[in-house]
Design brief:
This protein has about 150 residues and is an all-alpha fold. About 80% of the residues lie in helices and about 0% in strands.
């Protein structure tokens, strides 16, 4: 709790610095990923390196201080693997979507909305199925554990 209170004081004290960090991080991502800038200092790093991460500091501060609801962020954390799987599938065929949507910004917004929403839906569909499979495996293991161990050993 003391750490959270200390963070609150740091954020209030350095609000301008937080905004500068956010603007710098967003600018770095846009310049490296969409404009094609290759900085000489970080040319071997990915576009989401240390400089790009600066934009998340002011966004995460209210979450750390519990000023915003953490439910959505927690849901994104729980569904992150499912969102990742949707992204891998979606970006394999994203060129079909790009035929109907022109412009980089609308495409990014469409990518975000589709991947996050379908990933969350997939999380809610996949979770009971995985739970059922785990129950069946656990039941099978407990029922036939002695027989399997005799065969293995």
């Amino acid at each position: 709790m003391a750490v959270i209170l200390q963070w609150g004081g740091v954020i209030k004290k350095h609000r301008k610095l937080s905004v500068i960090c956010m603007c710098f991080g967003i600018s770095y991502i846009i310049m490296c990923k969409y404009i094609g800038l290759i900085p000489p200092v970080t040319n071997y790093w990915s576009g989401t390196s240390l400089w790009a991460v600066l934009f998340i500091l002011p966004i995460s501060a209210p979450l750390i201080l519990n000023r915003l609801s953490n439910r959505f962020v927690e849901l994104l954390g729980k569904a992150s693997y499912d969102i990742f799987l949707v992204q891998m599938t979606y970006f394999n065929g994203a060129s079909m979507v790009y035929k109907h949507i022109s412009g980089t910004i609308p495409q990014i917004i469409c990518n975000f909305i589709v991947c996050v929403s379908v990933g969350i839906i997939f999380y809610y569909v996949e979770r009971p199925i995985t739970k059922l499979i785990n129950q069946r495996i656990h039941y099978f293991w407990n029922k036939y554990k002695k027989s399997i161990m005799q065969i293995v050993l």
